[in-house]
Amino acid sequence: MLRIVLLAAFMLTCGAAAAEPVHGIAMHGSAALPADYKHFPYVNPDVKKGGKITYGVVGTFDSLNPFILKSMRTTARGMWDPQFGNLIYESMLQRSSDEPFTLYGLLAETVDWDEDRTFIQFNLNPKARWSDGQPVTPEDVIFSFELLRDKGRVPFSSRLNLVSKMEKIGDHSVRFTFNEKADRETPMIFGLFPILPKHAIDPDSFDRSSLTPPVGSGPYKIKNLKPGESITYERDPNYWGKDIPAKVGMDNYDQLTVQYFLQDTTLFEAFKKGDVDIYLEGNPGHWANAYDFPAATSGAVVKDVFKPKLPSGMLGFVFNTRRPIFSDIKVREGLSLVFDFEWANKNLYSGAYKRTQSFWQNSDLSSFGVPADARELALLGPIKDQIDPAILDGSYKLPVTDGSGRDRNVLRQAVDLLKQGGYTIQGGKMADQSSKQLAFEIMTQNADQEKLAVAYQRSLQTIGVAASIRTVDDSQYQSRTNSFDYDMIMKAYTSSLSPGNEQLGRWSSAARTREGTDSFAGANDPNLDTLIDHLLRSRSTEDFTASVRSYDRLLLSNHYVLPLYHIDQQWVARNKRIGHPDVVPLYGYQLQTWWDTSAQ
């Protein structure tokens, strides 16, 4: 393993630390691949590019700008897309999917930084070009940060708040010197910032939704689009980066189309007919029972199971604590106990799921079943008094019901907790001291969510809680979640092996009032802010693990989310014409590395 070489000696004449340029940077430790690496280990470097693929998604689109609040959730997929690939826009560095958090050269060929990460300098690849043939310049980088500061959505709009100086260095480099607000993840995040062409963008109109095909530096151009229906990309034959190591074996289709559908059932029907080539499955009952159509039984459709090495994440019903009814922890905890996971898992999912007990379950970062050690307790300090003792000592576990949907023992615990929150059963209704019934609305976005909400609603009725369910269309759902206009929703919080700044948008007090963030629960806890800061400032692997575990414990103790379930596999059905590498990286399958076998 090649280690990042840093020159520790300070230059007394200027007071600055110098460092040799490096090909890759890691959040903790060093980049796993050497400077002369040829490609990522999970690609097929010999694949022939060609052919085509069609993806399907549920929703609509009315914009090609993913960087503004107005079109945050209605931008055409593929423009800036972690799943299908960043087809149009690129960043300075490319993330490896086989390491927790390591970045390698993309628009920037190399990077300079110091041991304390007080600055980062991106040294642009002289070959980097926009799709109109113009070179990517330091001026483009500076323009991008300033434009998104002034016109962009969070988190792009806040990046320069962490910078004391942004300057052009020589003909091909840009250096960011950070201020006291920055942390050790900051330079990593800057490496993933989108870079836009100064010469091809009008800043005055940038914050308006547009369907005009933009100039990008990525591997594709827009071929045609039908707003709300489909968008088709075609390979740029002059793409500058096709031979750099971080791009070898990627972006393998000549044509890539994303089709939009109003419902998932319609999407699946299109997949069955061969109009869509990939179906990303998330329903175990559907996975087990729905693939008896002719294309599947004949072998024209292939079912793949992938096993990534990732933490579980957290899927759950989210309490919007901005609503007074959910401001009390005991109320949230009591309502959480009412949900009968055993009944739902047996009757709705054929027993396929495991109950989620931690935001980082199945990894060393999880607090589940692990008592807080001396390192954690030292990090927590007095915050440990705000954590459930059972969660602190690792003995906490969500109760297991008898699977009846109305387990009396568990419901009795829930009623006791609700009583501590100011509610008692009055005339068959769970009501407060003013005799107002405890009632709330669960907003869902599809039939699967609605089915689970109905199961929860039924259990809530047994203790006199009135839960209504409202299923809305995609545009209304996105609008209401952007403005936090709901009582309860279902959300999935993905978890990586290197959690960092994304936690600010999810759980920091500052994010509570910022529309468009992922602060779905509206957390407002200075202790969470402190633990996020610990997480971001950790240097050693040991401190980082301890900081994530302590943070996990406080999130669980605050009961912002009613934990549901997870599965430790990824399911994908595909047209057999679509091939993929044999190697499964740490983060699971990567669609950007797949190809059309008919072109081989």
Q: Which radius of gyration do the C-alpha atoms yield? A: 25 Å
Classify the helix fraction into a percent range. 10-25%
Q: How many strands, which pairing sense, and closed or not: the largest β-sheet?
A: 5 strands, mixed
Q: Report the strand count.
A: 29
Count of DSSP-assigned helices? 15
The low-pLDDT segments are 1-17
- For the termini, the CA-CA separation is 34 Å
Mean pLDDT, all residues: 94
Described by its quaternary structure, the protein is single chain
Computed structural class: alpha+beta
Order of strands across the main sheet: 23-22-24-18-25
Strand content bin: 15-25%
The 3D shape can be described as: globular
What does this structure look like?
There is one protein chain. Helices cover 24% and strands 22% of the residues. The strands form ten sheets. The protein has a five-stranded mixed beta sheet with strand order 23-22-24-18-25. Strands 4-15-14-13 form a four-stranded mixed beta sheet. Strands 8-9-11-10 form a four-stranded antiparallel beta sheet, with helices on one face. Helix 6 runs antiparallel to helix 10, helix 8 (374-380) packs across helix 15 and helix 14 (526-537) packs antiparallel against helix 15 (541-558). The radius of gyration is 25 Å and the shape is globular. The model is unreliable at 1-17 (pLDDT under 50).
